[in-house]
Amino acid sequence: VAGLAVFNRKMSVIHFFLKENGRCITRLENMGFRVGQGLIERFTKDTARFKDELDVMKFICKDFWTSVFKKQIDNLRTNHQGIYVLQDNKFRLLTQMSAGKQYLEHAPRYLAFTCGMVRGGLSNLGVKSIVTAEVSVMPACKVKFGFLQKLK
Amino acid sequence: MSRQASRASESKKMNSELFTLTYGALVTQLCKDYENDEEVNKQLDKMGYNIGVRLIEDFLARSSVGRCHDFRETADVIAKVAFKMYLGITPSVTNWSPAGDEFSLILESNPLVDFVELPDNHSGLVYSNLLCGVLRGALEMVQMAVDVKFAQDTLRGDNVTEIRMKFIKRIEENLPAGEE
User: Fold this and answer.
1) A67-87: pLDDT as tens digits
2) In a domain, B175, yes or no
3) What is the pLDDT of residues B108-134, one digit of tens each?
4) The pTM of the whole model exceeds 0.90
5) Measured between alpha carbons, how far is B77 from B84 in angstroms, rounded to an integer?
6) For helices A107-124 and A25-43, angle between their N-to-C axes, nearest 10 degrees
7) How many independent structural domains does chain B possess?
8) Phi and psi at residue A135, in whole multiples of 5°?
9) B23 reaches A (C-beta below 8 A)
């Protein structure tokens, strides 16, 4: 329980970090990319190779998302042709801001960071992808990704 | 069975690292943007200041500490409440000056620097300088002008990490023109 309190406080601080770098979305995405690479590097050094796309997706949705944001994603959809949409209804980086329209314009910077993170993580797993995100109703977000190549 | 167990402990490691990695990515980005370490240090301090002036509100709302009566009390609150709350560590407060206006915070560990090594070409970088800005900004909002700097840093080869804080003066609240 004490752990969760420190985690929440650290989330607030991360918020402040990102606000300070908020002017440029590309910059945030790049920062996120580096973070994602670092996270995956530490996490998967002892695990076996992923056997296919589905295995990678399961990892992102369960292990990766849960360890980083302390909760599971709420929904995952796919068109079975390499596009996946992951939905988190109470996205941790957005729950710090009050629900409602006033902060909606700031949401993209948090999403850019997260997209970069997922893209960086996938990149270190050997997968090139395009990752985008949208927020329609705070604090829910949808992260969409497309695998640019088949997993070898 | 053992594979699941190792995944769970890896998972625990990973979430404390989001914070460390995000800070690292921030510092790296600044090193790319600015020519030299001095500039990066300044930017970290400035960023920290902007964060501190807003973080103080969060802190006061969540900690319910009252007004500090003197600098000693301030030091204790910073070490035992604030650092604990945001970084999960409790530095020790030592090396008080005879006048009681200067003290050191000794950090046994620093979550910002886990797994960080400074490359040789960045020996002038004060990696955690953001912390100095945060402390300065936060205290300014409670009417204290302070000077904060790193006296020792394990990243630069010292045995401990030491932050030195000096009280400069009390900031009088500015009343809007026309009021007494």
Assistant:
1) 888 888 999 999 888 889 999
2) no
3) 999 899 889 898 899 899 999 999 999
4) no
5) 10
6) 40
7) 1
8) -120, 125
9) yes
